[in-house]
């Protein structure tokens, strides 16, 4: 797989696009990411028995959120927000420094992202019925995979813009460029260790795990590769901006 040339550790690359353009890319990507996450969750919950599953981080955070908070109208918002900020602490450990600006950026990302997640979830749970026929099930499998592709593409866009990041994607970027020499696929697999721990905790608390299945496996295997593909083919002139992977 082609790897992007990256700066040495500690070097901060220059920003080559304007802040206005950067925020426009960011706004587009956060909507795409939220929509993709919700598509995986909703299709998973509307196919019975539930064999589809959602994206890996999404499934883990949703499970732990339900285990701790119960299944209520605000569970997704609080699960994504709190667990996201805990991931920021892990990022600081891996970066070997406590960067309040970076952590503040993670929070700035998480607030609208969590709101969009809850909003899209309310909408699509109302308009998407349960899949009761084979053609509907096949359609929901396609939509589920499409959601994973949306997530991978959105990650590519806002990681390259690098204004503020989802803590999980910040983790992915730190691992990718600090430890994996730019390899998106291996970095994505390593970044799945924290949500795996979340899922194990949730399983012990609630006696099982949900929203893990075919779509989760698809995300586990292909989401990193989709991100690497999007780096080259979605807005190909957009390069990683102001990349800081620590000392």
TrEMBL record:
Classify the source by domain of life: Bacteria
Q: Which InterPro entries match?
A: YczE/YyaS-like
Write out the entry's keywords from A to Z: Membrane, Transmembrane, Transmembrane helix
Q: Name the residues that span the membrane.
A: 23-42, 76-95, 107-125, 137-158, 179-203, 209-230
Q: Which Pfam families does UniProt cross-reference here?
A: DUF6198 (PF19700)
Span of the signal peptide: none
The protein in question is named Fructose permease
- Species per Swiss-Prot/TrEMBL record: Limosilactobacillus agrestis
Native organism taxonomy = Bacteria, Bacillati, Bacillota, Bacilli, Lactobacillales
